[in-house]
Amino acid sequence: MVSGAAFDSVGTILDDAALRETIRRRVEAAGTSFYWAMRLLPRKRRDGMYAVYAFCREVDDIADDWPAAERAAGLAAWRDEIAALYAGRPNRLIARALAEPVERFDLREGDFHDIIAGMEMDAAEDIRAPDLATLDLYCSRVAGAVGHLSVHVFGDASPAAHRVADALGRALQLTNILRDLAEDARRGRLYLPREMLDRHGIAGADPVAALRHPALPAVCRDLAEIALGHFDTAEATMAECSRRAMRPAATMGALYRAMLDRMLRDGWRDPAARISLSKGRKLWLVLSHGLI
């Protein structure tokens, strides 16, 4: 067992139960769609996923919300913290929460560092119209690496499960990109690939101008086709995995594919419109993919 006390935001020492409860509240407060899939897991695995999600949220907030001049140092500090975690000396609350899942589920240190590397791509400069290879690397780091950690927590660390993580992670991240066009533009970011923008006559890399261009829906449809291919690969590969263990992955795939289908039907006529699924639709997908 890893030694060291965990503290909350006001310096109170937390025992293991209080630590789990603090992390759970953070995840629930975030309102993430992942919460629906996490609830399918037994408590130990659910606690593990909560800790992984809390870590991802922490480094994502650094890349998105910290002053630009402080982001690199903030992410570097998390690299040091992950090294300390694997040396048995975690200091931060979230790292302390990760200690048991790391040991219990054999989580790989490199996957945490890959996630940080993805956040460093956002922190270094605003990503604008990356080429397809750079976009794929970004998706691999910020989403595929999360998938690799997740399948260990789910209970299937087979090569097939890791292939699902690669494909499904990319599918989910591309769906997020297509959903969050306006939000990303407000941050000065444009994740749509240069090759597709050029193909449809959108010059330059100004996010606001790209979102106003009449060819934007065509670019989005092209990127959606890539995402759909990743969804198909993930679904086919899941047949080689433990069905029970991969129920959360299947649920997330179903939720996000339904969201992508909704965007395809709407056609990105209004990039600022926030696409979401109703609670009833989410519940039906959870029941049909996560419990059957």
Describe the SSE topology.
Layout: E1 6-7, E2 13-14, H1 16-30, H2 34-38, H3 43-65, H4 68-86, H5 93-105, H6 109-124, H7 132-154, H8 159-179, H9 181-186, H10 194-199, H11 207-212, H12 216-238, H13 247-266, H14 279-290
Antiparallel strand pairs: 1-2
If you had to describe this structure to a student in words, what would you say it looks like?
A two-stranded antiparallel ribbon has the order 1-2. Helices cover 71% and strands 1% of the residues. It is built from 14 helices and 2 strands; from the N terminus they run E-E-H-H-H-H-H-H-H-H-H-H-H-H-H-H. The protein has 2 domains: 13-109 and 116-123, Orthogonal Bundle (Farnesyl Diphosphate Synthase), CATH 1.10.600; 126-292, Farnesyl Diphosphate Synthase. Helix 3 packs across helix 5. The chain has 292 residues and is mainly alpha-helical. A hairpin with a 5-residue loop joins strand 1 and strand 2 (13-14). Mean pLDDT is 89; it is low at 1-13. The two termini are 36 Å apart. The protein has helices spanning 16-30, 34-38, 43-65, 68-86, 93-105, 109-124, 132-154, 159-179, 181-186, 194-199, 207-212, 216-238, 247-266, 279-290, and strands at 6-7, 13-14.
Per CATH, which architecture of the largest domain?
A: Orthogonal Bundle
Q: Which range does the strand content fall in?
A: under 5%
CATH superfamily heading of the largest domain = Farnesyl Diphosphate Synthase
Structural class: mainly alpha
Q: What do we call the CATH topology of the largest domain?
A: Farnesyl Diphosphate Synthase
Query: Biggest sheet, open or closed, and with what strands and sense?
Result: 2 strands, antiparallel
> How many domains make up the 3D coordinates?
2
CATH class identity of the largest domain: Mainly Alpha
**Average of per-residue pLDDT values:** 89
Nearest-angstrom radius of gyration? 19 Å
Instruction: Name the shape in a single word.
Output: globular
Q: How many helices?
A: 14
N-to-C CA distance: 36 Å
Low-confidence stretches: 1-13
Work out the number of β strands: 2
In spatial order, strands of the major sheet run 1-2
User: Helix-strand pattern, N to C?
Assistant: EEHHHHHHHHHHHHHH
